[in-house]
Amino acid sequence: MDYKFYIGILAGLIAFFAYIVYIRSILKGETKPNKTTWWIWTFMGAVVGVSYYFSGAEATMWVAVSEFIGPLVIALLSLKYGTGGVKDRTDLICLIGALISIVLWIIFDSPVIALITNLIVDVFAVIPTIKHIRLNPDDEGIEGWFITWVADCVNLFAIDRLILGVIVYPVYMFIIDSIMVLVIRKSQKKVK
Predict the structure, then answer these.
(1) In the prediction, which pLDDT does 134 show?
(2) Which of 66, 34, 33, 31 is nearest to 48 (CA)?
(3) Angle at 168 between CA 163 and CA 174, to 5 degrees
(4) What is the Cα–Cα distance from 142 to 152, expressed in whole angstroms?
(5) Which pLDDT belongs to residue 88?
(6) 138: number of CA atoms within 13 Å, CB side?
(7) Are 113 and 105 in contact (CB under 8 A)?
(8) What number of CA atoms fall less than 13 Å from residue 98's CA on the CB side?
């Protein structure tokens, strides 16, 4: 086995650990997850994970696995500890977009199209959480997001083939989690 496979496993373990930290923060009442975002991320995590695998991912697959399991647990916890819900047009667009990605995969017989479509939809899924963080900066802990960002950094080194279907997910995750860490940090600094 290539060393990149082990780097990918390490990235997946770090990402999974980030969810443990985030879940602990929820249970302690420090974080209030947005229900809409986490349910969308659960559904999309399943679609992204499967489409990413069929796009040729191997070494970098472990972060994608944790990006389904972690959001599923958090989505379930959001029912009791979370905020929000499917109330606005953005939430509905995200759900429809994830469903469309599956249809596009079937029509074009291309998991890469489904993967990219889901990543585009994911940008919309993060909007309710960013909005919530900006309005309620103390409702979101930075620790879990930061650890996830570290996992994303490690996962970049696990990329074993320079093809779009393999590199797009790790690069996207690095960018989106960098944005989340910066938004949380900036919002929390404003309050203090």
Answers:
(1) 87
(2) 66
(3) 135
(4) 15
(5) 63
(6) 4
(7) yes
(8) 22
Do 149 and 181 meet the contact criterion of CB atoms below 8 Å apart?
Answer: yes
pTM (two decimals): 0.85
SS3 for 57?
coil
Please state, in angstroms and rounded to a whole number, the distance separating the CA atoms of residues 137 and 191. Answer: 7
- The amino acid at 56: G
The backbone torsions φ and ψ at residue 66, rounded to the nearest 5 degrees and listed phi first, read -70, -25
| Distance (Å, whole) CA 173 – CA 61 | 12
SS percent in the chain: helix, strand, coil, step 5:
80, 0, 20
pLDDT tens digit string along 55-112?
A: 999 999 999 999 999 999 999 999 999 987 666 676 677 778 777 888 888 899 899 9
Listing DSSP states for 14-53 in one string gives: HHHHHHHHHHHHHHTTS---BHHHHHHHHHHHHHHHHHHH
